[in-house]
Amino acid sequence: MNSKHNPDNRKNNVERLHDMIENTQAKMEEAERIMEYSSSEEEKMRLREKNEHRQQSITAMQQEMADEAQARENGYQ
Question: What's the rounded Cα separation, in Å, for the pair 11 and 73?
Answer without folding.
Answer: 11
